[in-house]
């Protein structure tokens, strides 16, 4: 099982962030197969893992080209999952009124509003806002940039919300979701 499949099975939010990161990596290589293969060889160890990872990366690169997201944007599979997460988020809040989810959301809500204001409408919903912010944090850490305490605090709440949502998503996909209406 390749890294993407592993993340998809374990934590759907981490999977989305991973795919976004790999999309950017592929863009940085200008879709050059040799550079992508070189990257895979840096982390994959055995021949089977190398082959699985290279196949996944080549499939991602092909899909990006087919869907016209070579310069920006995300593949449709990830957009669809993000949409599913957003629908689940609203279902947990407005229909199921899930108290444990509402508690985590309440803590993150103010920070989401602040981020939306700063982002100037570049995100369209709470889930996309949290994921975009967390991806931005990842990029800042990779650049070894200074991160303010306020940003760290907001990201902690975004991370908790996405972890809870990912857990509920996994339950939903397995048919284990508690559908008691409050």
Structure description:
This protein is mostly helical and 182 residues long. 77% of the residues lie in helices and 0% in strands. Helix 1 packs antiparallel against helix 2 (12-28), helix 6 (99-119) crosses helix 7 and helix 6 packs across helix 8 (149-174).
Low-confidence stretches: none
Give the strand tally.
0
Shape label:
globular
Elements, N to C (H/E):
HHHHHHHH
Instruction: State the domain count.
Output: 2
Strand content: under 5%
Question: End-to-end distance, in Å?
Answer: 39 Å
Question: Which radius of gyration do the C-alpha atoms yield?
Answer: 18 Å
Look at the structure and give the mean pLDDT. 94
State the major sheet: none
Number of helices: 8
Question: Helix/strand-derived class?
Answer: mainly alpha
User: Approximately how much helix is present in the residues?
Assistant: over 70%
Lay out the secondary structure.
Layout: H1 3-10, H2 12-28, H3 33-43, H4 47-66, H5 76-95, H6 99-119, H7 126-142, H8 149-174
Relevant terms:
182 residues; mainly alpha; 0% strand
């Amino acid at each position: 099982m390749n890294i993407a499949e592993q993340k998809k099975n374990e934590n759907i939010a981490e999977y989305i962030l991973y795919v976004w990161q790999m999309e950017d990596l592929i863009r940085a290589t200008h879709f050059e197969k040799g550079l992508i293969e070189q990257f895979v060889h840096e982390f994959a160890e055995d021949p089977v893992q190398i082959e699985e990872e290279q196949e996944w990366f080549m499939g991602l690169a092909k899909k990006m080209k087919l869907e016209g997201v070579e310069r920006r944007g995300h593949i449709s599979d990830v957009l669809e999952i993000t949409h599913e997460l957003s629908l689940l988020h609203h279902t947990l809040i407005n229909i199921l009124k899930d108290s444990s989810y509402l508690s985590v959301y309440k803590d993150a809500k103010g920070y989401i509003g602040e981020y939306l204001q700063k982002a100037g409408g570049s995100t369209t919903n709470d889930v996309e806002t949290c994921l975009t912010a967390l991806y931005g944090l990842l990029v800042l850490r990779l650049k070894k940039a200074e991160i303010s305490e306020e940003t760290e605090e907001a990201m902690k709440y975004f991370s908790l919300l996405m972890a809870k949502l990912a857990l509920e998503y996994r339950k939903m996909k397995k048919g284990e979701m508690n559908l008691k209406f409050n």
